[in-house]
Each structure stands twice: as structure tokens, then as C-alpha cells.
């Protein structure tokens, strides 16, 4: 029996049961949940980095987006608030679309 010990999406136990298998789960406390969300973000980022094509990359980005939704709630906001903060930062400092790579800044 494989042991996973990781945060999974809400319907995974149901999907496992529908396949005729049994699983054991538990509900994480708040501190564990925050830790596991962060761990899962690292996992999904690694999978995004390893993606072999655009389709795989988009799947991993979708997973990361779902985690961002969950993380926003952890920090007392919702995704709309997170998006508003992103928009404010983009207006003030720009985005990343122009592909600017900073090499150095001359000191005085």
C-alpha cells in the first residue's frame, strides 16, 4: 500500500473510493495546512519546471493557481484581493512581459 503523506485536492478521496480502493485521510490543523500549502507549491513549481511541453506546463500552472487561491484565503483575503494587489504592483513597477534581464546597477 503506497503511503503519500501529502495535501491533496478535496475530491481525491472520493475519486479513490469510486475506483474501488480505500484510503485513510485526516484534516490538517491551520499550521499544518499552511505548511502543506507551501510544500505543495514547491512540488507544483518543480513539476512546472520539468514540464516537457505547453500542455503539461499549463496543467502545472493551473495547479499553482488553485494553490494561490487557497493561500490567499489562509492570509485573510480572496483571489480578487490578490489580483488587485498584483494589478497595483504591475501599475507601479510593471510586469514581466518585456523580458527585461537586469545585469548590474552602477554604484555611486
UniProtKB/TrEMBL annotation:
* Keyword rRNA-binding included in the entry's annotation: no
User: What Pfam families does UniProt report for this protein, alphabetically?
Assistant: PRA-PH
Coiled coil regions, renumbered to chain: 31-58
Task: Establish whether keyword Cytoplasm is in the entry.
Answer: no
Q: Which SUPFAM superfamilies match?
A: all-alpha NTP pyrophosphatases
The entry's keywords: Coiled coil
Name assigned to this protein: Phosphoribosyl-ATP pyrophosphohydrolase
